[in-house]
Specification:
By secondary structure, this protein is an alpha+beta fold. It folds into three domains: 224 residues, no CATH class; 75 residues, Single alpha-helices involved in coiled-coils or other helix-helix interfaces; 123 residues, Histidine kinase-like ATPase, C-terminal domain (Heat Shock Protein 90, 2-Layer Sandwich), CATH 3.30.565. It is 64% helix and 11% strand. The protein is built from 14 helices and nine strands. Strands 5-6-7-9-8 form a five-stranded mixed β-sheet. A two-stranded antiparallel sheet has the order 1-2. Helix 2 packs antiparallel against helix 3, helix 5 packs antiparallel against helix 8 and helix 13 packs antiparallel against helix 14. The two termini are 32 Å apart. The relative contact order is 0.07.
Length: 447
């Protein structure tokens, strides 16, 4: 979850770069749309706080009191459901007035079917109870923010514009102006009506007007923290969603690899072995009738066996190379670089070997990137650097080619980024047109 400020600018209410302001921020803040949107949010805090507090206290108390009967459980679930509905309205209000980007929490997970598992899931949901806590905690803050923002706004603009409406007092109240202090009958006191009084009043109002936007923004920041901390998805929910997505990527990648292996076996080694079997059958028949021709056919079959074996070795290397298992990442990457069509310098500095899964992903990442260098980069040289930084395995691949590589959807780099993301890895691509291309992969270090 996050919060930001879209159309008006890249930061909090700022315009996009290139459009300079004529007024400094303190002078233009009272007139910015952001100030008035957040002020509107502060005003709506009070009615929403009252609704949420009354609902939560009433229904939770009623449900707790009825727990001696079966009715108490449905009442508590109804109370939590109402709090979640209020939270939905609060998130929408935060999006529209605070320009806050916050995800909706996921549905409540239940184990099993039926009424009792559903009731248990609702009552055991941390998201539901965080919504209830928000309804209870938000009320006192709503009262405070409503009073403070309204007081600053009314006194600021009221004092600043006081000379424009000061005439109301002598016209309708027989007083010279606002009474600062004095007795009730109006014989003694201080009324704001002289030029000096009006000047002091305007100066005080100006100070309030200039300070009010920053007071409102500070309170709006507290509102954002309350909404983000209590009404957004929990870290556990985010992690579950991320793991479910990563699991889908892993399953899809494994299925694609199996299809590739099946295709390579069917179109390559299998077809070659079938042809080899037919050739050997023909050679067997020829050995009795024409030994010279039979020997020639056996010799050709022997060559086909060598080719088939090489294809099987290449296929096995694509599944998991033996050199990676036996000697580690350094020699394996050196072997991959040796097969690249451009010279590639390999530097591997690791204090120990990571787990085989991370080691394999790093190997295949470099293999795919070197294939891209061979096929698409037009480079004359490249480099591969691998090292450990804290708890991360860093892989850096560069080339001096034409650049323009992109990790946009549908490209090979996008698929590579998804594979890295499935193990909490990151792929960063820096490839401006004209080059050079720098691609960095970060993987978790798991020894």
């Amino acid at each position: 979850m996050a919060y930001g400020f879209p159309p008006e600018g890249p930061a909090q209410g700022q315009r996009p770069e290139g459009r300079a302001h004529r007024l400094p921020a303190p002078l233009r803040a009272p007139f910015e749309a952001r100030t008035w949107r957040e002020f509107g949010h502060q005003l709506l805090n009070l009615p929403m706080g009252i609704i949420g507090f009354v609902w939560a206290v009433t229904m939770l108390t009623l449900g707790a009191g009825l727990l001696i009967t079966f009715i108490g459980l449905p009442v508590l679930v109804l109370a939590l459901g109402g709090c979640r509905a209020i939270g939905r309205v609060e998130r929408a209000r935060a999006r529209s007035l605070l320009w806050m980007e916050i995800d909706e929490p996921g549905p409540v997970r239940t184990r099993g079917r039926g009424a009792f598992p559903w009731l248990g899931g609702q009552l055991g949901s941390g998201v539901n109870w965080r919504h209830a806590v928000y309804c209870l905690v938000h009320f006192p803050w709503a009262v405070f923010s409503f009073c403070v923002s309204l007081t600053f706004m009314v006194y600021g603009w009221g004092f600043l514009t006081y000379p424009l409406w000061q005439w109301v007092f002598p016209t309708f109240t027989n007083r010279n102006g606002i009474q600062i202090y004095g007795d009730a009958d109006g014989r003694h006191g201080w009324w704001l009506h002289t030029p000096l009084d009006l000047t002091l009043c305007v100066a005080t109002g100006l100070i309030f007007v200039l300070v009010t936007p920053w007071v409102i923004r500070a309170m709006a920041h507290v509102d954002r923290m309350l909404v983000a901390g209590l009404l957004g998805p929990s870290r556990l929910d985010d992690r579950v969603t991320e793991l479910e997505s990563d699991r889908g990527v892993v399953v899809d990648t494994a299925a694609a690899d199996l299809r590739r292996i099946e295709r390579d076996l069917h179109d390559g080694a299998q077809a070659r072995l079938v042809a080899l079997a037919m050739d050997l059958g023909m050679a067997k028949e020829k050995l009795l009738d024409d030994p010279a021709v039979g020997a020639q056919m056996v010799e050709e079959a022997h060559g086909e066996v060598k080719v088939a074996l090489q294809e099987l070795r290449d296929l096995a290397r694509g599944i998991h190379p033996a050199i990676l298992t036996d000697r580690g990442l350094g020699p394996a990457l050196s072997a991959v670089a040796a097969r690249c069509t451009v010279p590639v310098a390999v530097t591997v500095e690791l204090p120990a070997r990571p787990v085989p899964a991370i080691e394999g992903i790093a190997y295949f990442t470099v293999s795919e990137l070197l294939q891209n260098i061979s096929k698409h980069s037009g480079a004359s040289r490249g480099a591969v650097d691998v090292w450990r930084a804290d708890d991360r395995l860093m892989v850096h691949v560069t080339d001096n080619g034409r650049g323009g590589a992109s990790g946009a959807g549908g490209s090979g780099l996008a698929g590579l980024a998804e594979r890295l993301d499935s193990v909490d890895g990151v792929l960063a691509v820096d490839s401006p047109p004209g080059g050079p291309t720098r691609i960095t992969a970060e993987l978790p270090w798991r020894a």
